[in-house]
Design brief:
Strand order of the largest sheet: 1-3-2
Largest sheet: 3 strands, antiparallel
Radius of gyration: 23 Å
Distance between the termini: 33 Å
Number of strands: 3
Structural class: mainly alpha
Amino acid sequence: MKFQMTATHPYAGWMAAGQVPPPAEPQWLSPDEDETWRALHLVISTLPGALGDQLRLAVDLSFLEYYVMAVLSEQAGRAMRMSQLAVLASSELSRLSHLTIRLEKRGLVRREPDPEDGRFTRAILTAEGLALVVKAAPGHVEQVRRLVFDVLDEAEQHALKRALTKILPKLIGNC
C-alpha cells in the first residue's frame, strides 16, 4: 500500500524523505502541578492499604474484599454479574474470580449462573456476608473519616468532590 501525500498532512516532508517525524515535546507539568500529581498518586496508592489494615484487624477482610461485599450489599437481591462487579471494583475479572472463591470458601459470597443469561456468572452476598459487612461498616467509616474527612474543612471537602467529579468521566470514558 502506497502512502498518498497531501500538502496538508503535517508530516508530508518527513514522510516523503522516508524519515520518522520527531516526537512532539510534551507539555511538562509545572512544579505546582507536579507536586499535586505526586500527592494524588501517594494518596491513591496508600489509602487502600491504610483502609485494609483496619479491616484486616477488625474483620479479617482486605479492602477489596470489603468493597466487593459492600457493593453487593447495595444491589437488588444482593447480587451482581461478576463482569459488572469487576468494573466497579476496578479489578480484572480473573482477580475478582479468585477473590470471590476465597469469599465463597468462607460462606460470605456464592456464585451462580445469571438466570437472565447463563453465559454470565453472578456473585451473591450471603446472609453471613451481609452480617460481616454490617459489622465492618462502622469501623471502616470511622477510618475513612479519620484519614480523609477529618483533615479537610467543609470548603476543601467540596473542592475535592468538584475536582474528582470532573476527573472521573475522563477515567470512565477510557474503560
